[in-house]
Amino acid sequence: xxxxxxxxxxxxxxxxxxxxxxxxxxxxxxxxxxxxxxxxxxxxxxxxxxxxxxxxxxxxxxxxxxxxxxxxxxxxxxxxxxxxxxxxxxxxxxxxxxxxxx
Length: 102
What we know:
Elements lengths: L4 E4 L1 H18 L2 H16 L9 E2 L7 E5 L3 E8 L2 E9 L12
Parallel strand pairs: 1-5
Antiparallel strand pairs: 2-3, 3-4, 4-5
Helix pairs in contact: 1-2
């Protein structure tokens, strides 16, 4: 079985940090926030063996979006044996490209 390398962009890593802080603030618990982000990271690791899931979107060539636990949307592309996680969006945040300045 082919295994893919999973890589988070700088923006996706910033999204994880933002989600951690948001959940910590809302729950008043660092443990709850750590566990939630841990579940996200575990889910992302599963892309190593089954990357081509989710819905293909025409926002960017080959971009797919998959949901996680009803609150998170993960935008990613599969390129050259690698799964590139573009963004990890929480609670309805919208994916924007560099061309979106309005």
